[in-house]
Design a protein that fits this description.
Mean pLDDT: 89
Largest sheet: 5 strands, mixed
Structural class: alpha/beta
Number of helices: 3
Number of strands: 7
Strand content: 25-35%
Distance between the termini: 22 Å
Low-confidence stretches: none
Strand order of the largest sheet: 5-4-3-7-6
Length: about 150
């Protein structure tokens, strides 16, 4: 089961709709057009379109499987005293006193540019269940990161 926000669920549904109703028909049209050009054994356009169709069908199956097992979390039932899924955490890096704010989300919603980190990432795992004022040590590829949780919001 995969827990996610309503926003993340809606985004996945929109992506699946785009793949099924826009991109897949375009690829099928490209395959039909390439097939009409004759000899398929040396037809690069045909083979490229078939590869693209295979890639798209794989992405569609993956998104369908994620949505099949997805459960939308009701934010009103979540507490803001401990870090959990959909918590917005303000923390300070104790090595350089830089303050950062991230929202803990499902792996399918993670996007660092939007300030969303996966609950399955090293930082997400280390923060899980902690309270404001706690200090955590996170093992990241660059070494050990010491973070102090300043506040937790939903």
């Amino acid at each position: 089961m995969e827990y996610m926000s309503q926003e993340g669920y809606d985004k996945l549904v929109a992506e699946l709709h785009q793949l099924e109703n826009v991109e897949l028909p375009q690829v099928r049209d490209a395959i039909a057009e390439a097939r009409d050009k004759g000899d398929l054994s040396e037809n690069f356009e045909y083979h490229a379109a078939k590869r693209e169709q295979s890639r798209l069908l794989g992405r569609i199956r993956f998104k369908q499987r994620v949505l099949e097992h997805a459960r939308v979390i009701d934010k009103s039932r979540l507490g803001s005293e401990n870090v959990g899924l959909l918590s917005q955490v303000e923390m300070t890096n104790l090595s350089n006193n830089a303050t950062m704010t991230y929202t803990i989300v499902s792996p399918h919603e993670a996007n660092l540019r939007e300030g969303k980190i996966s609950i399955k990432s090293p930082i997400g795992q280390a923060l899980l269940g902690k309270k404001a004022g706690d200090t955590v040590e996170v093992h990241v590829p660059a070494g050990i990161l010491k973070l102090r949780i300043e506040s937790i919001k939903l």
